Amino acid sequence: MTRKIIFTKKAPMAIGTYNQAIVSNGLVFTAGQIPIDPETGIVIDGDFKQRVNQVLKNIDAVLIAANTSLNNAVKLTVFLTDLNRFGELNEVFSKWFQDGDPPARSAVQVSALPAGVDVEIECVAEVA
Length: 128
Hints:
single chain, CATH 3.30.1330.40, two-stranded antiparallel sheet, 8 strands, globular
Protein backbone atom coordinates (compact mmCIF):
# COMPACT_ATOMS: atom_id res chain seq x y z
CA MET A 1 0.00 0.00 0.00
CA THR A 2 1.28 3.45 -0.91
CA ARG A 3 0.61 6.49 1.22
CA LYS A 4 1.54 10.09 0.36
CA ILE A 5 0.97 13.13 2.55
CA ILE A 6 -0.39 16.22 0.78
CA PHE A 7 0.33 19.77 1.90
CA THR A 8 -0.26 23.12 0.23
CA LYS A 9 -0.05 26.71 1.44
CA LYS A 10 -3.05 27.46 -0.80
CA ALA A 11 -5.32 25.83 1.79
CA PRO A 12 -5.52 26.46 5.54
CA MET A 13 -2.89 24.92 7.77
CA ALA A 14 -4.06 22.03 9.91
CA ILE A 15 -5.31 23.23 13.31
CA GLY A 16 -4.71 19.88 14.94
CA THR A 17 -2.81 16.62 14.58
CA TYR A 18 -3.74 15.72 11.01
CA ASN A 19 -2.71 16.29 7.40
CA GLN A 20 -4.60 18.24 4.76
CA ALA A 21 -4.91 15.04 2.74
CA ILE A 22 -3.51 11.57 2.18
CA VAL A 23 -3.21 9.83 -1.19
CA SER A 24 -3.56 6.08 -0.99
CA ASN A 25 -4.16 3.54 -3.76
CA GLY A 26 -5.27 6.10 -6.33
CA LEU A 27 -7.62 8.01 -4.03
CA VAL A 28 -7.21 11.31 -2.17
CA PHE A 29 -8.79 11.56 1.27
CA THR A 30 -8.99 15.15 2.50
CA ALA A 31 -9.32 16.31 6.05
CA GLY A 32 -12.42 18.33 6.76
CA GLN A 33 -12.07 21.89 5.54
CA ILE A 34 -13.75 24.89 7.13
CA PRO A 35 -14.17 28.43 5.70
CA ILE A 36 -10.74 29.74 6.62
CA ASP A 37 -8.89 32.09 4.29
CA PRO A 38 -5.53 30.35 3.79
CA GLU A 39 -3.70 33.68 3.47
CA THR A 40 -4.88 35.06 6.82
CA GLY A 41 -5.70 31.87 8.73
CA ILE A 42 -8.97 33.51 9.79
CA VAL A 43 -12.55 32.36 9.22
CA ILE A 44 -13.93 34.50 6.37
CA ASP A 45 -16.62 37.12 6.79
CA GLY A 46 -19.65 36.72 4.61
CA ASP A 47 -22.88 34.84 4.28
CA PHE A 48 -23.38 31.08 4.39
CA LYS A 49 -22.97 30.62 0.63
CA GLN A 50 -19.67 32.50 0.68
CA ARG A 51 -18.47 30.25 3.50
CA VAL A 52 -19.43 27.09 1.58
CA ASN A 53 -17.67 28.47 -1.49
CA GLN A 54 -14.50 29.10 0.55
CA VAL A 55 -14.60 25.54 1.89
CA LEU A 56 -14.86 24.16 -1.65
CA LYS A 57 -11.99 26.42 -2.77
CA ASN A 58 -9.88 25.06 0.09
CA ILE A 59 -10.71 21.46 -0.83
CA ASP A 60 -9.95 22.11 -4.49
CA ALA A 61 -6.55 23.61 -3.56
CA VAL A 62 -5.69 20.50 -1.57
CA LEU A 63 -6.83 18.25 -4.41
CA ILE A 64 -4.82 20.25 -6.96
CA ALA A 65 -1.74 19.73 -4.75
CA ALA A 66 -2.50 16.00 -5.06
CA ASN A 67 -2.67 16.25 -8.89
CA THR A 68 -6.45 16.12 -9.12
CA SER A 69 -9.39 18.48 -8.50
CA LEU A 70 -13.00 18.62 -7.38
CA ASN A 71 -13.89 17.47 -10.89
CA ASN A 72 -12.63 14.03 -9.81
CA ALA A 73 -14.42 13.96 -6.46
CA VAL A 74 -16.31 10.73 -5.82
CA LYS A 75 -17.73 11.49 -2.36
CA LEU A 76 -18.21 14.61 -0.24
CA THR A 77 -19.34 14.56 3.36
CA VAL A 78 -20.85 17.83 4.58
CA PHE A 79 -21.23 18.70 8.25
CA LEU A 80 -23.69 21.50 9.05
CA THR A 81 -24.73 23.03 12.34
CA ASP A 82 -28.13 23.80 10.77
CA LEU A 83 -29.57 21.36 8.24
CA ASN A 84 -32.10 24.03 7.26
CA ARG A 85 -29.27 25.50 5.17
CA PHE A 86 -29.40 22.47 2.84
CA GLY A 87 -31.01 24.50 0.03
CA GLU A 88 -28.30 27.16 0.16
CA LEU A 89 -25.67 24.42 0.17
CA ASN A 90 -27.20 22.96 -3.00
CA GLU A 91 -27.11 26.36 -4.70
CA VAL A 92 -23.35 26.60 -4.17
CA PHE A 93 -22.77 22.97 -5.16
CA SER A 94 -24.73 23.48 -8.39
CA LYS A 95 -22.19 26.14 -9.42
CA TRP A 96 -19.19 23.92 -8.65
CA PHE A 97 -20.65 20.81 -10.29
CA GLN A 98 -22.34 22.20 -13.40
CA ASP A 99 -21.66 19.22 -15.64
CA GLY A 100 -24.65 17.33 -14.26
CA ASP A 101 -22.41 14.61 -12.85
CA PRO A 102 -21.77 15.61 -9.22
CA PRO A 103 -20.10 13.30 -6.71
CA ALA A 104 -21.97 11.26 -4.14
CA ARG A 105 -22.68 13.33 -1.03
CA SER A 106 -23.90 13.08 2.53
CA ALA A 107 -24.99 16.03 4.64
CA VAL A 108 -25.39 15.68 8.38
CA GLN A 109 -26.27 18.08 11.15
CA VAL A 110 -23.82 18.31 14.04
CA SER A 111 -23.96 20.24 17.28
CA ALA A 112 -20.67 22.11 16.78
CA LEU A 113 -17.68 22.43 14.46
CA PRO A 114 -14.08 23.66 14.89
CA ALA A 115 -13.55 27.41 15.28
CA GLY A 116 -17.31 27.92 15.78
CA VAL A 117 -18.04 27.60 12.03
CA ASP A 118 -21.32 26.33 10.60
CA VAL A 119 -19.97 24.17 7.74
CA GLU A 120 -17.18 21.64 7.25
CA ILE A 121 -16.65 19.40 4.22
CA GLU A 122 -14.38 16.43 3.58
CA CYS A 123 -13.75 14.77 0.24
CA VAL A 124 -12.62 11.56 -1.40
CA ALA A 125 -11.39 12.00 -4.98
CA GLU A 126 -9.68 9.94 -7.65
CA VAL A 127 -6.16 10.94 -8.59
CA ALA A 128 -6.25 12.24 -12.15
